[in-house]
Amino acid sequence: IVNYSEESDVEVTFQPTKQKQQTKKDFDINFEFVTSVEEYQKDAWNDLTKYVKRKAKSKTDEKIKKARLISQLDDDNNDQLNETKVSTDQDAVLSDDELIHDNIKVKKKKRESNNSGNEEFFDNVVATSDSKSFYEMNLSRPLMKAIGEMKFVHPTPIQSSTIPVALLGRDICGCAATGTGKTAAYMLPTLERLLYRPIESAITRVLVLVPTRELGVQIYQVSKQLAQFTNIEIALSVGGLDLKVQENMLRKNPDVVIATPGRLIDHLKGTPSFSLDSIEILILDEADRMLDEFFAEQMKEIIKQCSRTRQTLLFSATMTEEVEDLAAMSLTKPVRLFVDSNKEVAFNLRQEFVRIRQDKEADRESILCALVCRTFKSRCIVFVQTKKQAHRIHILLGLLGVRIAELHGNLTQPQRLEALQKFKNEEFDVLVATDVAARGLDIPGIRTVINFMMPPTLEHYIHRVGRTARAGRGGVSVSLAGEQERKIVKEIIKRATNPVKSRLIPLEILEKYKTKLERLEPQIEQILQEEYQERLLSKTENQANRAEKLLKGETEQRRPWFQSAKERKLEKNKLALQDDPKTDSKSLNNKDKNKNKERKQKKGKETPNDRIQAELKRLALLQSRLAKRKAKPKRLNACVDSTAPPKHNKAKRKKSNFTEEICNTSRKGAKKYRHVQNRNNKSKAFGKAM
């Protein structure tokens, strides 16, 4: 009998293959036949259709398919267009000479002495709880039924620590690693408290603030599933979705509002019947991101309108000094729950690095194509630094036959939701994204995370690679690191618990993909040029429609904002990545004119090295800004001693108390007694002299 069993100790080697890695799909023992067609077609995403009124229009994939079709016809010299089929799978493109194995080495870590005395206080505090089941947490039956429907068996450490404390109404500052169930940790006690609310009047009692739209959609879906057997109303208020539908939902005063800061302020200023006066629970998810400089002014405006007697819950995967300061200063007797400070990656994550020499920075795209087309063919996320780079890689890998989608801020919200949903449904194999997808998103089954460029800080790296190896599963991260990024690589290797691998792609494979990219460059430029012309055309049409409305006497009512146009422009310039930012409005106009002149003068084609150097320059500017912010001296907080009298107290002095004077052993009392004794001694000496 042939033994087909696998040895558990053998490490999986991620090398090029012609076959895709198939997921093991065993028969579900809990399989049940449905009773109706509606139940069979039930989908959690259908609840979002009421917020999405515009269709997700994206012509990039059509252009890629057309370009591949034309190139295949040119190669085959075949004029029969209808009989030709374009393969969208990488297996047809991969040849036998590309199956050469990559050279993988283990990077040794330098031994260093353990300075346990220098560790921070919060790292040593571990929240523990004896609760081993949701039944021991005093949750109501509707929530327990929803937990059973969602197949939750045992609570995670952050859930078992948070739920009992949050039910008491205490303020919480919680920190746990990515993928440990923080959403259920704060939503279950919140929904439990809302079950006992007065039903006579509809009031918005809970506000959940999130930094990104996709994270808000995800929390909305989880919350709807947890509250499916209750009468609790939950509303979603994020940018990019239909404004009128959100206004109608907020006018009904739902119990829970999940929002991003910008859209929430828009509704506070533009929806008269909606306010935050009745907020009883304020939840900040990804609190470290919510408290950075990009959301600073918006967060001040929101918290200023919330009730002071609220319960505040702060949750984050990485704990920064800003979050600690907020927890210490603005929360009322907060409970700090540090299950995991998340300063290390997941224990079951395999970390790999591809070193790029200083004169080989232009090879990044060919290295990425070799990794995706040969080795990591499915369930892969590629993180890039900018939206422009994400779109280019989408076109590039699409022309190579990879089923790929993109996710970044230049897309409309319906396009972003559609890309995320199709990637979850495995209609796409690869997702190229900016850091908008680096926080909080839980996409099941992700095996690989590739960093096209190293992130600016270690915290950003932990968030990116945290998209894989979640909830005890395994995963791989592959990072392309140049000479400018060696510092962060050394820091990652220093903190790694498992051996870190170094991957070297054979030179002949790189040369082959270089020639492929050079051959595809005209097609990429053509697609980008077509999209640019389409944008100009749609912009012109919009301007013509506005002019037509103005001629008819129709005026568009502008929605109010808490900042003036000048303040918003100054804030945008302050947050922009530039060498010498100026906050003067005249300098802003001059700068815009100079930029336009540079664009007109620059007629030559942009080389791969120029693109990468521009990305590295932006990365260096971002790192310098974060370093300056970290080195900035913290604000000193004055502490008033309750026992000491105020400075300028002109009230009458209290009468002397014999017991108090005898027992007063303070420094001030001793100084007073010394002064009285010296004065008496001087008076006696003066009397003798007389």
Question: Which structural traits does this protein have?
Answer:
Rossmann fold, nucleus, 8-stranded mixed beta sheet, helicase, 7-stranded parallel beta sheet, alpha/beta, 690 residues, disordered N terminus, 10% strand, globular, RNA helicase activity, 23 helices
Report on this model:
The protein is α/β, with parallel strands linked by helices and 690 residues long. It contains 23 helices and 15 strands. The strands form 2 sheets. It has an 8-stranded mixed sheet, with helices on both faces. The protein has a 7-stranded parallel sheet with strand order 4-5-3-6-7-2-8, with helices on both faces. Strand 11, helix 15 (413-424) and strand 12 (430-433) form a beta-alpha-beta unit. The termini are far apart. It is found in: Nucleus, Nucleolus. Residues 548-595 have a biased composition (Basic and acidic residues).
Topology (elements, then pairings):
Layout: H1 37-40, H2 60-76, E1 103-107, H3 121-124, H4 141-149, H5 157-167, E2 172-175, H6 182-194, E3 206-209, H7 213-226, E4 234-237, H8 243-251, E5 256-259, H9 261-270, E6 281-285, H10 287-290, H11 296-305, E7 311-316, H12 321-329, E8 335-338, E9 349-355, H13 364-375, E10 380-383, H14 387-399, E11 404-407, H15 413-424, E12 430-433, E13 448-451, H16 458-465, E14 475-481, H17 486-495, E15 500-504, H18 507-552, H19 565-575, H20 585-601, H21 608-631, H22 658-663, H23 667-689
Parallel strand pairs: 2-7, 2-8, 3-5, 3-6, 4-5, 6-7, 9-14, 9-15, 10-12, 10-13, 11-12, 13-14
Antiparallel strand pairs: 1-15
Helix pairs in contact: 5-6, 6-7, 9-11, 13-18, 14-18
